[in-house]
Amino acid sequence: MTVKLNRCRCGRMPGVRTCRVAEDAIETWVECAGCRARSPKIEDAYADPESAAAQWNSGKGTKW
């Protein structure tokens, strides 16, 4: 599965990240390795890179 991500405001390409937070829950988000901007985390039973990419591409990335 491939998702298309828009470039970050800093000019770098972000990546999709996942983290298992419980036995039956996985958090998925998009994060820029350069400036550490990220999309909101999506928690679900399965990884959901499509929804994380949609939030990132719609401009919902946040600055740390």
Describe this structure as you would to a colleague.
A hairpin with a 2-residue loop joins strand 1 and strand 2. The protein starts with 14 loop residues before the first strand and ends in a 7-residue tail after the last helix. With 64 residues, the chain is of the alpha+beta class. The protein has a 3-stranded antiparallel sheet with strand order 1-2-3. It has one helix spanning 49-57; strands at 15-22, 25-31, 42-44. It has a domain at 15-57.
Entry keywords:
64 residues; alpha+beta; 3 strands
Summarize the structure.
This protein has one helix at residues 49-57, and strands at 15-22, 25-31, 42-44.
| Residues in helices, as a percent range | 10-25%
- Separation of termini? 28 Å
In total, the number of strands is 3
Q: What is the rounded Rg?
A: 11 Å
With strands numbered from the N-terminus, the spatial order across the biggest sheet is 1-2-3
SSE order, as H and E?
A: EEEH
Taking pLDDT < 50 over at least 5 consecutive residues as the criterion, the unreliable ranges are: none
Average pLDDT figure: 89
* Structural classification: alpha+beta
Query: Rough shape?
Result: elongated
Strand percentage, roughly?
Answer: 25-35%
Please summarize the sheet with the most strands: 3 strands, antiparallel
In DSSP terms (H or I, runs of 4 or more residues), the helix count works out at: 1
